[in-house]
Amino acid sequence: AKIELLKHKMAIKYVKFSLNNIPFCLKGYFSFSNKIGIDLSFSSYPDIRSSMDNNSKKIDLNCSATYSSGKFGGNIVLSFFKNAQVNKVHHKIELKLGGLSFAFPGSNSVRIKCSKADVNYTVGNNTHTIFLKDFDSSCDISDKKIKIFDFTSRIYDGFLKGKGYLDIKRMPFRSSCIMKIDGVSAQNLRNITEYFDKIHGNLSSSLKYRNHPYSHLYGDFSIENGYLDNIMFFKWLAGFFNLPALKELHFGKLSGKFSVDDDASRLENIDLNSDNVTLKGDFSVSADDMVSSKLYLTFSGKLLDTSAKFKRLLKLLGKENARLV
Question: Environment class of residue 249 by beta-carbon count within 10 Å: exposed (0-12), middle (13-18) or buried (19+)?
């Protein structure tokens, strides 16, 4: 280790150590001038050349923050590679925190509060963004290996709560959590996944996440009293068959299951019910943008009767066959 103590600063040139036979290095400084400041970098395999950067046990953590009036504000960036089902994928988590504070209500617990947290999670070339407010978490630190935590937070115009664990004994760290989201406008989640870009309504969801043996987010969702806005397939149907009601398709409920991992995003058991249209099926997009889907559409006779083109088609098929699959 090499540490220098200056007038208003402590500079950590390097602190090298080994954990579970993995070499680590800590660098950075603490500033004690008008505002207390921290700037630290923490890396595993610090002497490995760039050609070894896809080592799944290599991590890079950077933390910069200032301390004022009992609270921290700053940024945390965690970068690492993970084994996906097909190949190694680069992950980066960026946290921008405001009003961060710590409390220790007992010898084996810590409480973390944060008035604002912007989270950017990048997997390969895809970035997912979440904005949280009034985050409140309690963590049991009595076990040296596994830390158990629970949390609540505002998420956009809704509410988030969950619980999980973090295994810090293994490298890379392993984590799993379950979460529940209530009362969020679906459009607000468009920065998490593009699926919500054209969906409006009140969303509730139960979801689970684990990062081992590969990153996997999955669960179910329900959106009520909403509408689909300018979905390309419905837009084409609306134009070709002169069915303007499909351009903005209102529904009472849209539900299904979802799964997102390093290799694909999937929507399963899709079930949409509206006055004029029923939609069921599955849809997936692979990491290399290959689309696979199996969707079933049922149109009401009332809707089809508003289209002159469909009327001619129905005359050939017969009214009893006014079901399009």
Answer: buried
Cβ(127)–Cβ(137) under 8 Å? no
Q: What is the pTM of this model?
A: 0.78
In order of 21, 24, 204, 220, the CA distances from 269 in angstroms are 45, 46, 16, 9
Phi, psi of 25 (to 5 degrees): -145, 135
List the beta bridge partners of residue 16: 25
Q: Using one digit for the tens of pLDDT, what is the confidence trace for 259-287? A: 888 778 888 999 998 888 899 999 888 87
Read off the amino acid at residue 74: G
Q: Are 61 and 25 in contact (CB under 8 A)?
A: no
Please list the ranges in the chain whose pLDDT falls under 70: 48-56, 82-88, 171-172, 314, 317-325
Task: Identify the residue whose tokens are 């079901």.
Answer: 323
